[in-house]
## 1
Amino acid sequence: MSARDRILGKLRASQPTRTQALPDVSGWYATHRPIESAADKARRFRHFIELAHAEVYSVSRGGWLQKLWEVLAARHIDKLLIGRGTPHGERALSELPQSGIACAAYDQAIDGWKEEMFHHIPASLTGACGAIAETGTLILWPDEYEPRLMSLVPPLHIVLLDASRIHNTFFEAMTAEGWKDGLPTNALLISGPSKTADIQQTLAYGAHGPKELVVLMLDEEKPVIPAQAGIHSAAENLDSRLRGSDVSTAPTEEQQ
Amino acid sequence: MNAQPIHFKPAEGFRARSKAVVDNPFLRQSFRGAMDFLMAKRAAQFPDPEELESLRSLGEQIRQYNLSKLPELLEQLEARLVGNGINVHWAETPEEANEIILGICQRHSARLMVKGKSMVSEEIELNHAAEAAGIGALESDMGEYIVQLAGEKPSHIIMPAIHKTKEEIARLFAEKVPGIDYTDNVDELIQIGRRVLRQKFLEADIGLSGVNFAVAETGTLCLVENEGNGRMCTTVPPVHIAITGIEKIVEKLEHVPPLYSLLTRSATGQNISTYFNMISGPRQPGEKDGPEEVHLVLLDNGRSQAYADEQLRKTLQCIRCGACMNHCPVYSRIGGHAYGTTYPGPIGKIISPHMLGLEATKGLVTASSLCGACGEVCPVKIPIPELLMRLREEAFSPPHANPAMRGQGAGYSPLISAVWRGWAFVYRSPAMYRFVSWLTSCFNWLTPARQGAWTSVRVPLKPASKRLRDMLAERR
């Protein structure tokens, strides 16, 4: 008899005769988590990821590359790892070199260039496929275009996030997007730069992964409204636009 | 039952180890400071008592639901993992688990294995077994790396080096890491660790990790961490081996968010960890990184014994957050090493007897004031004080046939048993009670001045020369 059979045999012999009722996870979230407008989600996401030491910049569809350049220039970084085959990767590749930033493409298996990846890539750019407001978390699904190590090895990781894809909770993200029916080989939640408090509870950043995490948050064109008084109407404004746009990735109040 | 697999004899020397810590003001300060810090951080994460209570109830329900279907879920998990291209292995004992892991290493002619934090790998003493087989096993979690450099074991399941001050770590690095100067700047120390370990991630043939949640319906292994070393271990080397206890399984993906939230908030008071790493397969054709081979080792090591009893089964609800130790008045005074077990603190006292037998752990179950703090903070509502009482009963009752636990009755003493029987006899009869209390007050001068542990720090106990009964009679 194999170890498998013996273990399963022991468990079966003493298994409770009746299975407990299936826990009502969605019921708990429905009664314990707020329904938020897109603007509130973006604000909460930003608040929490900044608390975790990430930098966040609001950018427009036209202007994000300029901000990316500024982020790199401010750190005197002249080399960026990008993924071929994504719109943002291709755009960075075609435009950044003219401004003095060399772009390395992740276009071959890691086995051939591990050393270089670890020692000579100061920064990387990837997209995020979504985010979570209540914890300030980016959702990344690495794939053949933007492989796993892009968000781990370079000391500076820059992430492009569409603000309309921010969910309230992890639970909402996985249910709204149907994760249980198809996860990639590696799915990641990232909530700040790498850190540790293993020496005398003293927080230090850049333990093994990126030392810095920068989020470029794509808002729709920012509505021109006075800063304080306008928060509510700005939320309504964004909301109404979201309703007319891609509701499958940005659940509105009605859906929840 | 099979022979003692691990060289732990926690019961022996427990008192001496505890006393050594209690007598050391630096260690006491380290633990006190760290526990206060962690308790405050956890409390700040749960400002709403209703939310905390209902989330704990949900966590408890999820864990109990999944345990009630454990054998089916293990089979479902195996089928999904295999479908995803992940190899599944089963081990009843630590030896079997080591054999499986080292077998995989040898097939790849591996020389270096980098390890992410895994308490199960500590449980099976993988590092020793690997070393004996000529394979380097290097811890890469900063805390574990420090503890390994010092030739010690983790003293806390979440913060392994919690017993060390930064000055100690600074001296350790200066002594053990080639080519560095002494520094007690925490940022610099972490950067030294980063530099050393990054080179090792590059060179390693095998990456080893634990598992926080294994999801049956999707065949996914979930890992929780802050540093990124777990992701390094599961992504950079060509082979990834994960090891987990058979209880860490959930049926549905939607069971993960509540447990994950309870875990990080209870453990370190973070609303979320930096990384949540969900692995559902090795590198696929076209993908440019990730391991070519992924293995999962499912370990029993006494868990099926806990499973067999309805009350003891609750031990397996644990999600290893460490909140019970952070809030334990015993742990915070004696620290993790005194217990002599892989898992210290309240959870260690109730899980270790299943792994090591009650013979080796009977002393641990009595090392509790039963204050109840552990049960109150447990995110999945394990009734730890109740289980401690049960284990005391198992350890100290007379040996009987078909015991629920290995080592039942190991602490049984006929003399103590006779004393209690006599006590019960006296207290059952009012006349006998009156007679014996009269007798003790008459002969109270016979009580010894030295009364063992009691008089080591207290004055001796002595029956009063006048009984309460007599005093009341006089007042009437």
## 2
Amino acid sequence: MFLRLVADSFTRRPKRKMLTLAALALGMAVATAALSVSLDVGDRLAQEFRSLGANLLVTPEADSLPLEIGGVDYRPANAGAYLPEADLGKLKTIFWRFNIKAFAPILETQIKATPVAWVNGGRNVRTHPVIGTWVNHSVKIPDGTTYTTGIEHTNPWWQLTEGTWFAEGKNECVVGKNFARHPPGFSSPLGPGQPLFTYMANGEPGPTLEVVGILDAGGPEDDAIIVPLDLAQKLSGKPGEYRRLYVSALTKPEDAFARKDPKTMTPAEFDKWYCTPYISSIALQISQELKGTDVRVIRRVAEGEGTILTRVRTLLWLVTIAALLAAALAVGASAAASVIERRTEIGLMKALGAGSGLVGVLLAAEQLLVAFVGGGIGYAVGILLARILGEKIFGFTPEPKFFLFFMVLVLASLITLLGSAYPLRRASRYDPAPILRGE
Amino acid sequence: MSDSPMFWRIVRRLLTANYGRLFVILLALGAGAAITSALLNLQIDAKRRLTTEFRALGANVIIAPRDANANSAGGTLEQALLAGLPTENAGKSVPAVAFLYVIGEVAKAGEVHHQAAVIAGAEGQGLTQVRPGRRTEYSAEKEKDPAACEIGAKAAEQFKVHVGDSLHLRNQGREATCKVFAVVATGGPEDTQIFTKLPTAQALADLPGRISLAQLSVTGTPDSIERFINALAQRLPGADVHGVRQLAQAEGKLYNRISGLLSTTVILVLILTSLCVMAGMSNVAIERKNDVGLMKAIGGSVRRVVRLFLAEAILMGIAGGVIGSAFGVLGSIWLGKAVFGVAAQPRWIVYPVSVGITILVSIASAFPLRRLASVRPASVFRGEA
């Protein structure tokens, strides 16, 4: 009989139940969407910040001072120390290897280059900075696998306006847009497919390069010639070596604990610090793996990223809580409304001898059923909504999380019961006579 | 209207007939208004605050010579242009620092062995904003010294100097000394440079009144920074004014995502609020069948009846909106503090907007009352549901 009463209230007046159900489903959909977006977006935002570029810089430990102005090192090629390219695979063997998103070694040199073949050894041709680096390079990892990375990942703002990136092992180059616009000793702009004649410092002709692309980096690189690392090594006479390494790592924003000096930590603290992806602990792990290096944190990127990320995350949770609050209110109000609407019925039941407790349990059971159905529909709609929101705003799809399903069901039942508690209590106290009279 | 007092009397009675229900609807409207206004205010504030936070990333606009030769002594600019730079964008001051770079030889005072290093003469407002980093050593008192200079962490290590030590600088026979007041770690090329006063570097380079470039840290939305750059480029035809692409791209992306998220949430909250009020109203519609039947029976037109209920909805919207929005704006001040560490500035425009939205929501959710128009007095009086 109890079940029949519950079932009847759904089948007899489906329209009324629809509104409650819709409110519940929509409220829970928003809750699901907000929760699943904000659960996933934290990691996603951290990745987003990697478009700021590398946050770690690796240089030789025993080095002379780099004479770097506007991104170009003016030291002669034989001054200062170099690092072995062969070691770079070890980067993917550190404790936080999966947090190393990209890395690219740099070897700079200078060369005389012009699009016209010069007769007198290019004596009148200006020297230009040459940047040797990796693009789409496969690195051998000591565990036998390979990893593909390069400058296009560490410096995502480097864009080719024309052509393609160079291929390794070929005499190809990409030139900066300023260089391309006013190539030395040439009146018209340079484009892909044209040759570039090079001369060594002593006037000897170097390899003839083919321009394959034009780079717009928005920085001093726009005046440079970018070549594969192996070619730069050949040009500078430094086979298998590089001078600077940029590493882009996913990190946890620094907190008070991260700012402590690792040397003053207790062993337990040190372990905790070492096993947390702070930028400083990743820096230490890299310097342990790459011998003879000095790993420095690029402060402007790392710190800017840290503060902004922390704030945005707080903001996100705040917004999620606001959405949850609104959803709870909507569900609670509609639950309350659905009870008030049933006064006559309650009166009749009581007139027929039902106690206040039984009426309460009956209505609560009904509400729970609504909550389960509404919560279920809401979860499904919410996952869809999260997908749309995630793709529209963040360009990614949040993974549907199954535990959210239970959370939403529990939440829906709780809020529904809470919302109907007060009107239910009132309803159970109704005196049947006036209600049945229609007053 | 001759029956105006009667009209309002009925409205008053409608409102006060059931305090419990009035409370629920007002609570729904008020809470909706509070969340809406808090989010709206926070949204405006967060966007503004975010652009400020981005400045932790350092200079985002660079003024360089048009023909930037690779050689350091190549292109330089007039130092005078620094004085003509705009000092403000979007209500925020614009730190601007001019640099002159010289490759000279440096040694700790008293030592013979000199080593090549980049000497950067700097002048302008806000060097620490333009070049963010961490000062591992710093003395405010020594900064006042007329020959004070700052040294990059890596260079300090190389020359074995600390705050208070003197440096000897020389370039092609020209000499200068300076006293270290800070050691700075940025992780960038600045770590290997020595920052002196601009005239010192100019004297060393024999380039009086010239600078290599100027760096600016402009606060604003991506669009407003773009406009700033274009306006500046027109004013300085001899120079190449460009944004730092690295920052511009990442900032633009993040800014759009976060503001998109906030806007979406505001809309969702509004939908939920109106749903909440609608649920309450549909209740009202059922309860009022008798009233409406009576009104119609004694000659009230449908239009007048609807007007009555509309007036009721608007009144509730105003009450809920006025109270709720006030709470929301106050709440957002506190929320701003929780998120950004600085109390959010209340935007007064948010208040009327959010009250207006609440009234609209309230009217829209009176939609279930539409059912009342089809009430037939006779069947109501017969007691049919």
